[in-house]
Input
Amino acid sequence: MTKLLRGLAGLVGFLLLWEVVDQVGLVSKTFIPPPSVVLVTVGDLLGDPEFLRDIVATMLAWLIAVVIAIAIGVPAGLLLGSVPVLRTATAAIVEFLRPIPVTALVPLVLLVIGSGPDAKISLAVYASLWPIMFNTIYGMGEIDPVLMETARACGTSRFRILSSVALPQTAPFVFTGVRLSATISLIAVVSVEFLAGSQVGLGSFILVASTGSIRFDLVLAGTVVAGVLGYLINEGLEQIGKRLFRWSSVDREAIA
Output
């Protein structure tokens, strides 16, 4: 509760400072509307069916991307973490691909896939895959070797070892990777919607609002909604993680 109150106090302080800076004329109200205007615009937008459709489109793409990233990242992390030779052989290509920003891949994906939902989902999967995979690999390295050797001595197959021994032991690390990837995926989805000119989505809404009539209150309102969604996703997953893995200190060791 104390943490929540401090967070709210910081938010209120930031909004008050923003309002004062606008009201005294340090910045142009045309380009940076005060929060008193932006928050009213947010309220109006939440009653607009088309804007709600944009939110649903973004969140649906986000959810699909996270699920696919988990389905790829966890098995890949278990495999690479359990087979050192394979991990070494793929290290160069992984380290080459990992730093490439999503925005740099947008033109290529648009040419290959087009600007539909597949484009933003594919790039969101690409962006959010790495934290899941690397945290799973890291978790594999933290498993007590005695557990693995005991399972092998009992004649347990490699698949059974990975699914019955390794996966439960690495679960806190995997979950932390998922939490990190969830916010990364949302950023990627909104960014691609904006850059690719998608038909629907928060990114598309912000793009339309920033062109034509140039309603900067709408631009900031869409940005605020995206930020709130990201905060709620991260906070929700963090609380779930604390309940499921209250015995673990993995968050302090997470790999982004």
User: Anything to note?
Assistant: DSSP finds ten helices and no strands in the chain.
